[in-house]
TrEMBL record:
Family annotation (InterPro entries): ATPase_P-typ_cyto_dom_N (IPR023299), HAD-like_sf (IPR036412), HAD_sf (IPR023214), P_typ_ATPase (IPR001757)
Keyword Nucleus: no
Keywords per UniProt: Magnesium, Membrane, Transmembrane, Transmembrane helix
Transmembrane spans: 187-208, 220-238
Subcellular location: Membrane
Record-level GO cellular component terms: plasma membrane
Name of the protein described by the UniProt record: Calcium-translocating P-type ATPase, PMCA-type
């Protein structure tokens, strides 16, 4: 925005006089959250493909995408508008999706279309939103995130409500979910290994001349010792 002054009277507010003295130029912008860059970086390191879909102009969206690190690691990073998106077929968009990071001037149907195509590629799709126009895409995603300050219809359509409106909360949720899944998987593998080994010993023992290879008391001790030590080991293991 430019600020200028003049000594001539301004009779027509739609036309500026010629003898203006420029005082200065200033610009305004919404500051990014301090956690935005780190949160996006964490998500990308975890193998999550982050796409920003916004109604802002292409230049503004591209600048924000660069500031948060969306466009830094991929030399084929693509920024398109809703008009360019509409001109492409579904197959073309599927080929573009791995390198698509920013969609500007987006309409609600663009969000739903991208969610649909990503699911057809076999991706697990998460969608965030806060407005009424985000509700269809949030509902159609595998996991829908609604902002705590968003509309009620979006919250009802979502699976998870992010109360602090912070993207870092989503990355933390992914961390906790993956940690829990890995812990359960490791414990199940361990238990299956111990129990299947005991079953095989008890089953094949008689074929080698052992009527009762393991007594009930011995099996109980095996379970007590292995479960206790395994629980202590898993409790002290890094996530």
């Amino acid at each position: 925005m430019a600020v200028a002054t003049t000594e001539s009277p301004i009779s027509n507010h739609r036309e500026l006089p010629n003898n203006l003295t420029l005082l200065g130029i200033f610009a305004m912008r919404d500051a990014l959250r301090t956690t935005a860059y780190h949160s996006v970086k964490t998500a990308k390191e975890a193998g999550v493909h982050v796409v920003m879909i916004t109604g802002d102009a292409k230049e503004t969206a591209q600048a924000i995408g660069s500031d948060v690190g969306l466009l830094s690691d991929d030399k084929w990073a693509t920024v398109i508008t809703s008009t360019e998106l509409a001109e492409k077929s579904d197959n073309e968009l599927k080929q573009m999706l791995p390198h698509l990071y920013v969609v500007a001037r987006a309409y609600p149907n663009d969000k739903s279309r991208l969610v649909k195509l990503a699911k057809e590629l076999g991706w697990v799709v998460g969608m965030t939103g806060d407005g009424v126009n985000d509700a269809p895409a949030v509902k159609n995603a595998d996991v829908g995130f609604a902002m705590g300050s968003g509309t009620e219809i979006t919250k009802e359509s979502s699976d998870i409500v992010v109360l602090d409106d912070n993207f870092s909360s989503i990355t933390k949720a992914m961390l906790y979910g993956r940690t829990l899944f890995k812990s359960i998987r490791k414990f199940l593998i361990f238990q299956l290994t111990v129990n299947i080994s005991a079953i095989l010993v008890a089953f094949f023992g008689p074929f080698f001349g052992f009527d009762l290879p393991l007594t009930m008391t011995q099996l109980l001790w095996i379970n007590i010792i292995m479960d206790t030590l395994a629980g202590l080991a898993f409790a002290g293991e890094a996530a």
